[in-house]
Here is the input.
Amino acid sequence: MRLVFMGPPGAGKGTQAKAVAKRYDIPHVSSGDIFRAEIAGETDLGKQIKQYLDTGALVPDEITVRAVVDRLQADDCQGGWLLDGFPRTEPQARALDEALEANNEQLNAVVNLAVGAEVIVRRMSGRRVCPTCGRTYHVERIPPKVEGKCDACGAELIIRDDDKPETVRQRLGTYERATAPLIDYYDQRGLLLRVDGSGTPDEVRRRIFEQLDSEVQDG
Ligand SMILES: [Zn+2]
Here is the structure.
């Protein structure tokens, strides 16, 4: 099974992607991991990637696509794979399709975790972090024993700037604008599986498995 996994920041994509990879016994391939491996291996590609990352620049599509396609040729990917964090743009999706076609391969499905903006804002804005020891909490899911205080060291918990509602909304807007063409692209090719990403991680996981299991049965 060859899968692409998509979802907005805060949708729990990473957790679900790992569970899916485990269920179908395919490697969980993320662009971040690929970059880190290329850099650690000091490959030519890795050296180029490092230069971009060190200067805070985005790694250009051409290099990203090459690194991902290389990774998908590895032995552990012969029975399929799950791509997480790539493609992010329509040109990247086209490049991936072309590379697969050249090997007589194709994607089986693109899972798009759909979670409403306000659900994500609520999840993220409940996060609290201890500025002293780094422990993390959530006011609903993992509350500290004493409201507003770290269990471990007693420090006053804070909300990170990244978790503030206005920041979360802004990031979601950016994500939506960037990925809308990508979602259309896969929808037009009949590959898009929309999965309701609201509810608990267990509920979401069951929904994803249900849809993918029927995908596997249909061939
Ligand atoms: Zn603490």
In short: The chain has one domain: 2-116+166-218. The chain is about 50% helix and 15% strand.
